[in-house]
Write a structure and sequence with these properties.
This protein has 198 residues and is of the alpha/beta class. 58% of the residues lie in helices and 20% in strands. The chain has helices at 2-20, 62-80, 96-114, 125-132, 139-149, 151-173, 182-197, and strands at 21-29, 33-42, 45-55, 84-88, 119-123. It is globular and about 55 Å long.
């Protein structure tokens, strides 16, 4: 009876360890680049293992972009061996051509990831930003900037703030982050969300 209880307890602890541990490959996709991060969660400890960006901008057509993705995603998975892959969901963009290309790119990424033995998921930008504690640029702020600097400058400030607020949050949570690329910063934040919500 004692052995059976010990065995059951070991089995439960093994399951809990698996739930507490995760290695996440997170991707912030665009038609111009693939920003990625690898985030490791070991029980309550979370660390950033890798980060980077693959440029797609110089590839002229969608076929070339998809071929590059079809090579890069498996390489990232095979090298880093994540337990989870999370890709940011596409959002509606006013330009129909960009929306179409982005849907192809994200769909291809999901397909490439699903061919490996990992859990694949996606997350909307509003969801991971809300979890992170991100506060959207408000109309009041835009109005104040417009009064002080003019409409054109207010738009620039608002655009900068939308990107920089995620960076400020990560700088306060990750020591020596030393990252200025906003796409990579978003990929890291997506990885943190996934590591805590897998």
């Amino acid at each position: 009876m004692g052995r059976r209880n010990a065995s059951s307890r070991d089995g439960i602890m093994s399951i809990l360890d698996k739930l507490n541990n995760a290695k996440v490959l997170s991707i912030d996709p665009s038609t111009k680049s693939i920003a990625f991060a690898v985030v490791l969660k070991e029980k309550i400890n979370i660390s950033l293992c890798a980060k980077g960006k693959i440029n797609l901008d110089k590839l002229d057509d969608i076929q070339s972009k998809l071929k590059c993705i079809g090579s890069v995603i498996p390489e990232l998975i095979e090298y880093h061996k994540p337990t989870h892959v999370v890709i940011e969901q596409t959002i509606y963009i006013q330009n129909p051509q960009t929306t179409r290309l982005l849907s192809y790119i994200v769909g291809h990424m999901l397909g490439c990831a699903l061919m490996h033995n990992v859990k694949v998921m996606d997350v909307g930008p509003l969801e991971w930003k809300r979890w992170l504690g991100y506060k959207s640029v408000s109309k009041v702020e835009i109005n104040n900037w417009t009064k002080e600097f003019g409409e054109k400058e207010a738009k620039k400030i608002a655009s900068f703030e939308r990107k920089n607020r995620v960076k400020n949050i990560l700088d306060s949570r990750i020591s020596n982050l030393n990252e200025s690329d906003y796409d990579i910063i978003d990929a890291i934040a997506i990885g943190l969300w996934a590591a805590n919500n897998h």
